[in-house]
Amino acid sequence: MRKKITGIWVLFALFFLFLYIQHQFVYMYFDDYGYASLSYGYTGNMAGMSYSLMDVLRFIKWHYLEWGGRVFYYCLGILSMRVGLWCVRLVQCLFLLGSTVYSWRLTEAKEDLRGNYIKAFILVFLYGAIGIETFREGIFWFSAAMGYVWPLCTLFAAIYYQKQYHKTEKSGSLVLAGILFFAASFSYEQVALMTATYTILCYVFGRFRKEKRVKGEIFLIFSAILGSGIEILAPGNFVRASDEANEAFFALSFSKKLSVNIPRVLEINLGYDNWISVLVFLLSGFMCAWGILREKKGSFIRSLNLWTGVILSAAVVVSWKLETEWYVCCVLILWILWYTINITLSLWNKRNWMVALFYGGICSQGMMLLSPTIPARAHIPFLFVMNMMAAYVVSELFTRFLSRGMYLFLGMLAAAASLNIASITMGYWKNAEINDINHCKLMEKSFRIRAGMKVPSIVLYRMRDDSYAARMPYHEPAMEYWMKNYYELPQSVHFIWDTLEAYSEVNEIAVSNRPKIVVVYPGDEDRILPYNEDGSLDIGITPEILKDSLRIWIDGEAVETVVGDGYVSTRVPREKLKGDLHIWLVDEDTSKASDEILVKMDR
What we know:
By secondary structure, the protein is of the alpha+beta class. The protein has helices spanning 2-22, 32-36, 53-66, 72-83, 85-107, 113-128, 132-139, 142-148, 150-168, 171-185, 189-208, 217-232, 235-241, 247-250, 254-270, 275-295, 300-318, 326-347, 352-366, 380-400, 403-450, 479-486, 505-513, and strands spanning 457-461, 494-498, 517-521, 537-543, 550-554, 557-558, 562-563, 568-572, 581-587, 592-593, 597-599.
């Protein structure tokens, strides 16, 4: 017995070691810099990273009132990033390990040691089954993981101590469970709804089944609803919802909103990106139906139920090759209904609290049907719940009825998940060198600027593969504002994004001194030239580095140039528009000229 238990904890220790090594290749992306520097939509911090705990609390207050109620875990994340990248990496590894360990503790059975080992094995490898899009947009994006991933560990821990309280009726377990339910629900809208739904249904199911009443359940419901209410009813949520970008969606009818969002919700939950996980979920549904049939062999209804599941499961796999048309959505919805019925019947008499958690997960996805945006990470709360369900159902039926096929399944899961997670980890590893170079260059330039040196621009490098990084500044230029605050750089410093293959000191100097045209207006894509009423034409140029010494040259002559906010422009008179315009950008301080740009007049 001890060897078996020790083996499970060794597995979890190895899993944590893998998580820690893997996260050494995960860096800060997009709004991570904004939260870390307290500049995400907030102007109250002008000290870069040199802020105090009171500054963090002021930012959290602003965030709650002006942007959203997701402040509890963001506060923890900000403090972690304030310590350093190593700290937020470690915190995330602990949360991921905790969610896995508590999932196992909730599904373990003392009398079934082999089954416990199988559950632990499945849970660990289901982490490796997660798709790249979910990692990129959720787990490996810290500011996203703070809302979608971190609270799940707290929720599973709360349920575990709730179960402990049911067994022992010790007040310590009750108080701890209440605190954890509050912390889990005071996190993010989807997790908040899932937590509140779970506590209510768990109580209702217990009364419906006439189980022994345990004092304190109302306290747990109150804790979950209180945390959910504080999060969901935050003034900032309503401010964000009223943003002009959401007006078009909210103007749609109820049916139109559903027609837009149902395909997306189905795609992120049952789509190809997480194909390994989905196959395990399909198998768990089939095994539920098979277990129901075994209870009453020869039943026509139960046999029909089993074969219906086989057909619908096959249809789910086929849907990966099809567009999400209405008939495909109908089939996927039918599979969800079939799975819900079978998982309910299978767990009702054994662990009805799992049914309550499953329904809570369904609600976390259902609420997205009325959301103006549905990111790929929106399915993460339900994904972790489904991992727990699948591990329990599959291990229970394999150990009881299908022991011969158990090792084949475990081997196939381990192989597929290992290849998947190895590919993802290697992708982030390949980008790690560039992330380190960029970080060191930004730190070095920050020190130079604080020492009084002038640094007009910094050459930084693009990722080798953007599939293994969240949004980057060369895709989202607004992100540079947060990065400059994080590294305590003046906003006037210009970032030049190049490929690593162009790396050299000579290249950095040359690129910085020679003007380079990034965008010219009107461009080739403008089919009709936007002439002014007097027949003149305005020319706008976005340079790589904006300087007051830049001058536009047209057809070999310098013209009057206006330096604007991020661009330079000039007005070309009608009489000079008889032929194509040959345009250069010249830096009068260095006499360096850009490459020629041709603006065709014949459109």
